[in-house]
Every structure is written in C-alpha cells, then in structure tokens.
Amino acid sequence: MDPDALLTSHRSERLFSRVLRSTDAARYQFAKWRQFRLAMCRAAQLGQLWMVQQLYERHPKALNGATALAAAQCGELPLIQWVHDTKRHLLRVDYYAAVFKAFEVAAVRGDLNTVQWLVETFPSVVLDIGVLVREGQLQAVQWLRDHATYQCKTGATDAVAKRGDLEMMAFLMENELLDESSCAMDLCAEFGHLEMKVGCSTDAMDLAAEFSHLHVLQWLHENSPERCTEKAMDRAAMNGHLEVLRWLDEHENAGCTTAAMDLAARMNHLDVVQWLQDNRSEGCTTQAMDGAAKAGHLGMGAPTWRWIKLQQMGIWKS
C-alpha cells in the first residue's frame, strides 16, 4: 500500500477499504507494519479520524508518537482526543512535543476549545502564553491566566507593540507580563503607536525619526526622559524626512554626523542635502559625492551630484 494513495482515497470509504484489504494480504509482516504506520501518520496529517481508526483496528501497533505529533500539527481536536483516549502516553513523548504543537496550532487558529482541553488534560504542563499573545488571542490569554500554569517568553511584547494592540498591551502591563527589555516602547515609536505609554530607550526617538512619525517624536519629547541620539537626524536625512529634520534641529540637541549628508546624497534627497548645508555645520565626506555618483548611474542622482560639485567649486546655487 502506498501511503500517498490516501491523498486520493480519503473521501471514499469504499476505495479506502479496498486499499486496506490489499495491504492485509501482504506477505511480509514487517512490510505490512511499516505501510500501516506511514499510512496512519498521513491520515492524521489529513485530519481524517475515521481513516486512522480503521487503520488502528487492523494494526494497533502502527499508532505511535509520529502519528500523535501529526494529529497535533493537524489541530483537529476530535483526532487528538482519540489518540489520547487510545494511547495517552503518546502525547507525552519527547517531553510533551505533541501537546506543545497542538497548543501552538490552536493559538494560531484562535481555537479556544482545544486550548481549554489541553490545559484541563495536562494541568502540569507549563504552556507559553506568549504564543497566544503574539497571535492576538486576548480571550484565550485571559482564560489561560486564570486556569493554567504558564510563562510568557521574550518577544511576545514586541509583536504586540508592532501591531498596536492596545488591549493586549494593557493586559500584559496589568499582569506584569511585559518583557524585561525596554524595546516595546521603541517598537511603538517605530510603528507610530502613541497610545502605548511604556518605558523606552533612546531607540524610541531614533526609530520614530527614521520612520517619520513626527507626532510620536513630539509626544516622547514631552513625556519621556530619554532623548534621541545623532542617529535620529542621520536616519531622517537618509529617508528624506525634511520636516522631521527641521523639528529635531529646533527641539533636540543631539545633532547629527557627516553620515546625514552622505546618506541623503546617496539616496538623492537634494532638498535634504541643501538644508543640511545651510543649517548644520557637520558637512559631509567624500562618500556624499561617491554615493550621488553611484545613484546617478541609475538615472536618479545626477542633480544631487551636480549640486555637491558646485559647492565644492565655490559656486553657491540653491
């Protein structure tokens, strides 16, 4: 029996029965056992409980840890429950690998019923609530907090900050589940989420400047003790955010480096290059000309290159 035959026979009980009978007639017991094992694993991947049951009736030893893991990856609760009722130890193989996989799949799908069954059936297993947090499953997270032993691994808070999930962030803060690092607010700044008032680092203003979130910059300037660094103006210049540059120049004291004009020239932001020339004293390096020249080969940087060249020649034109 070719296990791949299940892909075409799983909707036909008659065809499936014929495949089973032909396998039962196999001469060699080891070959038969191997075919049943592979077939059962494939049936579990398809989520076909009735097929797994028929295969099990003919060859119970074919049900093993691989089938349990396949059932977990499929995420079909009736199938997972059947495996547990039939050979419950299989879900504990490899340090509860099937349980953790089933939980992960349920989290992605928002399948609260499966989450609840796993918690009630395996109360001693410490589940990662961060999986649910990353997927935005607030209802499941709230239920898990009250009914399970859990942990929240690093990185979950970052995902919440990136998508601006205010309800989830509030829940994490209330239950002291925020990551110890301060990158959550930095990511809020990067993605423009003002509502999340979490402790931040200097990266917050730097990232807000890089991505032109001026309203975030203004809020951080008024409410956060952390200031920006030279990276703020350098990155804003690189991305052509002239309004942000003007605001930073007026309200912050970090300044910039020669990288600001170098990067602006390379990216063909002539208005930024001109503004930096008129308003800042850092200047540029030879990389400004080199970058503008390279961009010019693509038909973009010629105006910037010519302007910088004129400045070097002492011919001031704006």
From TrEMBL:
Superkingdom:
Eukaryota
Query: SUPFAM superfamilies, per this entry?
Result: Ankyrin repeat, Pseudo ankyrin repeat-like
Q: Which InterPro entries match?
A: Ankyrin_rpt, Ankyrin_rpt-contain_sf, SecEffector_AnkRepeat
Q: What is this protein called?
A: Uncharacterized protein
